[in-house]
Amino acid sequence: MERVFNFSAGPAVLPLQVLEEAQRDLLAMPGAGMSILEMSHRSKPFQAIIDATEANIRKVMNVPDNYKVLFLQGGAYLQFGMVPMNLLKGGSADYICTGTWSKKALSEGKTQGTVRCAWDGSADNFNHTPDDSELDLDPNAAYVYYTSNETIQGVQFKTEPNVGNVPLICDASSEFMYKPLDISKYGCIYACAQKNCGPAGVTIVIIREDLVENSADGLLGVLSYKKMAENGSMLNTPPCFSIYVVKLVTEWIMNTIGGVDKLYEINKMKAQLLYDVIDSSNGFYLGHAKPECRSLMNVPFKMATDELNDKFLAEAKALGLESLKGHRSVGGFRASIYNAMPVEGVQKLAEFMKDFMQKNG
Ligand SMILES: *Cc1c(COP(=O)(O)O)cnc(C)c1O
């Protein structure tokens, strides 16, 4: 069966080369003679895989030595609890609410202690990010939390909010490794893998060592950054296969793409293809986010009415352009164009959108 162009928000498209490599070595990993699916996590070959995955992430994202790289389970969602559980320690934290995911992190954070909203974009249906001057920040906060790319609203911070000396915590799930970052600006930056860097099952947490050392004691081991760091993310069985695929994805970034700088150029070019169609459509297509903060990863858009939505989706599907239906809270369509979405897929979608407008506009 032929592969379609998959615009799903997550789990999402993976590089074909990665799938082929995983398939090739699925029955017997070179040097091990058994499948990654069958291998003990305490074995030498698996230790080599998790070490290489960490080394690759450190290289791709230029992670400073005073940061830990953890491989955790429970999805990005579990971090909505682990962050306050480990870092609040009876204090209070500030949340910047730019969309569904940061709002969810705030409401789940409340189950763990005192968290407050430092900015709320809900009045504008989350169509932009705040200026630093609009943030109502508590200088004594344990941390400031934000979501760098709102997957559902397609709103993306172009640069980190300036929060002074308070540790900045970032959910980067739907943009992780899409451009070079200065990791030293973050106390912790984390991402589930299934949007932009691998399959579901593993969450990558990059966290400054002093935050790990000072994190709360007395937690269940798998919920404790300290315990997981002390045990090399293997207090218990890690998601071995997912970690292995993240290794392949990071190798693809380094060796095939040529690094994250290159990826950023490609990502800007891909997003521009779609935004150009939207901007030059005389209102036939309407983007959700304000132009200055629209996402390079998730492009939500709609038409003036919903009348033609089913037709649009059916015709797109017939061309092999899949999973374009928008999230119910925003409506219309959403094209997720993560790192692994080939340029040809975005070109084909842009052409289809122009063609559809000509025939129906
Ligand atoms: C998908 C997503 C989540 C939730 O991830 P799970 O792995 O399903 O828990 C959280 N934050 C953002 C920004 C996301 O895109």
Q: Low-confidence stretches at least 5 residues in length (pLDDT < 50)?
A: none
Ligand list: pyridoxal-5'-phosphate
Oligomer: single chain
Instruction: Tell me the series of helices and strands, N- to C-terminal.
Output: EHHEHEHEEEEEEEHHHHEEHEEH
Beta percentage is 15-25%
Give the CATH superfamily of the largest domain: Type I PLP-dependent aspartate aminotransferase-like (Major domain)
- CATH class membership of the largest domain: Alpha Beta
Q: Return the CATH topology of the largest domain.
A: Aspartate Aminotransferase, domain 2
The general outline is globular
The CATH level-2 architecture of the largest domain is identified as 3-Layer(aba) Sandwich
Gyration radius (Cα, Å) is 21 Å
The computed structural class is alpha/beta
Number of helices: 10
Say how many strands there are.
14
The major pleated sheet works out as: 7 strands, mixed
The proportion of residues forming helix, as a percent range, comes to: 25-40%
Describe this structure in words.
Helices cover 35% and strands 16% of the residues. The protein has ten helices and 14 strands. It has helices spanning 16-24, 44-60, 75-87, 100-109, 209-213, 225-230, 240-257, 260-279, 309-318, 343-360; strands spanning 5-6, 67-72, 92-97, 114-120, 144-147, 149-150, 155-156, 168-171, 188-192, 203-208, 285-287, 298-303, 321-322, 333-336. The strands form four sheets. Strands 2-10-9-8-5-3-4 form a seven-stranded mixed β-sheet, with helices on both faces. A three-stranded antiparallel β-sheet has the order 11-12-14, covered by helices on one side. Strands 1-13 form a two-stranded parallel sheet. It is globular, with a radius of gyration of 21 Å. Pyridoxal-5'-phosphate (PLP) is lined by residues 10, 75-77, 101, 147, 151, 171, 173-174, 192, 195.
